[in-house]
């Protein structure tokens, strides 16, 4: 009887071992085939950011092109005198396609830029919050507006640096006309031409003012957007927040406010960057010489020199050329980007949001 018990127990043990090994083998094989949840979450976050950037930028493409044309147009040969007149002029001279010239290149740049920016912000804010809690000793501490500003600045610098050559090329394609000294057939042709004729450094003309400008711009975008949302959810003024959730309209308003604050502060650096990109390619700015009738191309040597010459020859207001169409563009663009990002992540089933 005792021997039978031993045999039975041994058999049960053997069967249990075999079952456990089979289950482990199955789990191992499934682990090899299926991506990890973290990897899927990263991919979904990048996709959401890319979609948000493409949708928001295409929606305001005509205003984006007009802004650049206003920034770099010759002050002695004014073609664009404001938003409405400028859009009508483009429509009359170039047709409907002219309103969206350069948008393909713009989306090719903004989609990866937006994907990297949103993802970088989430990672930066998570790490900054971890450091903040560790230093303060408060495990329940939350991100402050200043910490969000820092996380946004990090995200902006990373995204801008990673996609800057595309931005440089996009600017040239946007202002390109039949009279331009060079005719670029597309994104890759422009990149190869600039690289071959002007060298690799030309792809990063205006990078410094771009990085300096992106710190307050992107940083304030994220900080203002999230801080506004938090404030509305906590205080619930006028019944705007219900059950700790904001409506799409309210979130759009938060994004619009964030975009307005950020772009107003950073706009002069955007003008400087654009002018530095156009040096040697198109007579974007000219000065009056001699008797006041002759004109000569205005060349820039660095960020400080561009600031100085722009203010000296065109006045301080030149640093805000194109601000009106840019404001009209930024208000819906930033708003659409934030809300689209959150909505796409909801559709894809990603729990983490920027405000979380």
TrEMBL record:
It comes from the Eukaryota. It comes from Liquidambar formosana. The lineage of its organism: Eukaryota, Viridiplantae, Streptophyta, Embryophyta, Tracheophyta. One of its GO terms (cellular component) is mitochondrial inner membrane. Belongs to the mitochondrial carrier (TC 2.A.29) family. Solcar repeats lie at residues 40-127, 143-231, 246-347. It is found in: Mitochondrion inner membrane. Keywords: Membrane, Mitochondrion, Mitochondrion inner membrane, Repeat, Transmembrane, Transmembrane helix, Transport. This is Mitochondrial adenine nucleotide transporter ADNT1.
């Amino acid at each position: 009887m005792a021997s039978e018990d031993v045999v039975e127990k041994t058999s049960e043990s053997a069967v249990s071992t075999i079952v456990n090994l089979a289950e482990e083998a199955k789990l191992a094989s499934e682990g090899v085939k299926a991506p990890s949840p973290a990897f899927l979450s990263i991919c979904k976050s990048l996709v959401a950011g890319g979609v948000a950037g493409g949708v928001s930028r295409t929606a305001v493409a005509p205003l984006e092109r007009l802004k650049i044309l206003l920034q770099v147009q010759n002050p002695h040969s004014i073609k664009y005198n404001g938003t409405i007149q400028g859009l009508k002029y483009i429509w009359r001279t170039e047709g409907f396609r002219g309103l969206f010239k350069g948008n393909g290149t713009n989306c090719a740049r903004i989609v990866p830029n937006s994907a990297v920016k949103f993802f970088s912000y989430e990672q930066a804010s998570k790490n900054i919050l971890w450091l903040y809690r560790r230093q303060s000793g408060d495990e329940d501490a939350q991100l402050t507006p200043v910490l969000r500003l820092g996380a946004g600045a990090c995200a902006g610098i990373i995204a801008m640096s990673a996609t800057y050559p595309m931005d440089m090329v996009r600017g040239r394609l946007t202002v390109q006309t039949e009279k331009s000294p060079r005719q670029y057939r597309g994104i890759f042709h422009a990149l190869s031409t600039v690289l071959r004729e002007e060298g690799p450094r030309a792809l990063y003309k205006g990078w410094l003012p771009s990085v300096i400008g992106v710190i307050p711009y992107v940083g304030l975008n994220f900080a203002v957007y999230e801080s506004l949302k938090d404030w509305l959810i906590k205080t619930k003024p006028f019944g705007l927040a219900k059950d700790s959730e904001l409506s799409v309209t309210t979130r759009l308003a938060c994004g619009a406010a964030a975009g307005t604050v950020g772009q107003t502060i950073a706009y002069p650096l955007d003008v400087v960057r654009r002018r530095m990109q156009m040096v040697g390619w198109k007579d974007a700015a000219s000065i009056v010489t001699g008797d006041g009738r002759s004109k000569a191309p205005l060349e820039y040597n660095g960020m400080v020199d561009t600031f100085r010459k722009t203010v000296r020859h065109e006045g301080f207001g030149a640093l805000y050329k194109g601000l009106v169409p840019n404001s009209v563009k930024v208000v819906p663009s930033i708003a659409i980007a934030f809300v689209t990002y959150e909505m796409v992540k909801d559709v894809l089933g990603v729990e983490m949001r920027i405000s979380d």
